[in-house]
Amino acid sequence: MVKICCIGAGYVGGPTMAVIALKCPSIEVAVVDISNPRITAWNSDQLPIYEPGLDDVVKQCRGKNLFFSTDVEKHVAEADIVFVSVNTPTKSQGLGAGKAADLTYWESAARMIADVSKSAKIVVEKSTVPVKTAEAIEKILTHNSKGIEFQILSNPEFLAEGTAIPDLFNPDRVLIGGRETPEGLKAVQALKEVYAHWVPEEQIICTNLWSAELSKLAANAFLAQRISSVNAMSALCEATGADVSHVSHAVGKDTRIGPKFLNASVGFGGSCFQKDILNLVYICECNGLPEVANYWKQVIKINDYQKSRFVNRVVSSMFNTVSGKKIGILGFAFKKDTGDTRETPAIDVCRGLLVDRAQLSIYDPQVSQDQIQKDLTMVKFDWEHPVILKPVSPTALKQVTFVWDAYEASKDAHGICILTEWDEFKTLDFQRIYDNMQKPAFVFDGRNVVDPKKLQQIGFIVYSIGKPLDQ
Ligand code: NAD
């Protein structure tokens, strides 16, 4: 029986390994992590991450051929294939601070693999890493391995949070990069055989290591660039009377462009887009390509601009001050169908409104009060300089309440901000909300989920991203 071990039981490691276990009953899969609470949650009915369909997949294989454990060394030692899916955040200090990927977790995983291995292994980069990381990993493994043979593969993950299970069941492509040596090609073939249990062969792309590593950074940069492009257009729409949803529709009808990922919003979030573009920027700078670096930087600058533009719109619409005014915040996760708040635009929007001394009442169906408090008070870095941005002080946190539904969040509020496109916000009883709000009642729709005309008929003053202001 082939044995797989995955180091890192997070948003990527957990779902990808659960799907491999489900689709490959002949393979034993162990997902290991140094975080005891995470592993305990994976072994319970309350999984550590919210992802539609995940519970069902885990229930079908857990205890049969899928195991979650903190015994990292034992499972690594026994495995034929070791996936490494640890976090690769942006470095916060030292050389490359604010841009470069922090590979501390990766390096310690690689050293541990070398230490405990007694048989040959394929080591798979599942985390998103800078191009050429495999070369560094090879050095760490071969210099510490006591003659054991390791083959390094790059197999970046393209799933999107919120749709991870369907994405893993039907991936657009699986990408495998390896060395173009006989041993390297053999390792690529072995990993290909795992995916071939359910992925059609023509969707499995094999390349050299550097192309695979760089493709993941490129894919995220292109996706984020699309959002920043449409968000840049949204500002121009508001200035000219065009409607960004009409523009997106017309532009997306061009088959060379396509309709996906063209929704204007308060900005992109999530743990990957900003971090991976900053990583790309750093790699360009290190390779003497400042013009290319500046090109990608602009994608993040527009995203920052979109978030501050939204805060400024809220404050200026409400007669240039929100001091003491209650604002209902509907949604805190970075997108719907996830409880993940990493880099969510809601953090910057809420921080901006708190600086102007608003009273916030926050509701999200999947994000806990603890998490929101942590996000608002955590230290953040300005990636451009990098300096620490002032976190929300414990006193300012007194301006925040946490509630259990959208009606409670908007009760007695002067305005509401929709910051996540949860489906339930589309079907709210807005007449009831209006009746319970202060007047004039404002809606700031950061995700374009409501019909502004219908809300205006009720009596709301509505701001939707990229829509004419006087409609
Ligand atoms: P995560 O923070 O949710 O999970 C990483 C896990 O690794 C944590 O539970 C941590 O405790 C564990 N870990 C760290 N060092 C360890 C070690 N030495 N031994 C054992 N466990 C260790 O991160 P994630 O969102 O799953 O992302 C993982 C990687 O995948 C990142 O490189 C990310 O860029 C990439 N990625 C993420 C997504 C996504 O949507 N989240 C999508 C594609 C790729």
Automatic annotation (TrEMBL):
GO terms for biological process: UDP-glucuronate biosynthetic process. Residues 328-452 form the UDP-glucose/GDP-mannose dehydrogenase C-terminal domain. Pathway: Nucleotide-sugar biosynthesis; UDP-alpha-D-glucuronate biosynthesis; UDP-alpha-D-glucuronate from UDP-alpha-D-glucose: step 1/1. NAD(+) binds at residues 8-13, 33, 38, 86-90, 127-128, 161, 272-275, 342. It comes from the Eukaryota. Its EC number is 1.1.1.22. One of its GO terms (molecular function) is UDP-glucose 6-dehydrogenase activity. InterPro entries: 6-PGluconate_DH-like_C_sf, NAD(P)-bd_dom_sf, UDP-Glc/GDP-Man, UDP-Glc/GDP-Man_DH_C, UDP-Glc/GDP-Man_DH_C_sf, UDP-Glc/GDP-Man_DH_dimer, UDP-Glc/GDP-Man_DH_N, UDPglc_DH_euk. Pfam families: UDPG_MGDP_dh (PF00984), UDPG_MGDP_dh_C (PF03720), UDPG_MGDP_dh_N (PF03721). The active site is at 272 (nucleophile). Transmembrane segments: none annotated. It catalyses: UDP-alpha-D-glucose + 2 NAD(+) + H2O = UDP-alpha-D-glucuronate + 2 NADH + 3 H(+). It is an enzyme of class 1 (oxidoreductase). Keywords: NAD, Oxidoreductase. Belongs to the UDP-glucose/GDP-mannose dehydrogenase family. This is UDP-glucose 6-dehydrogenase.
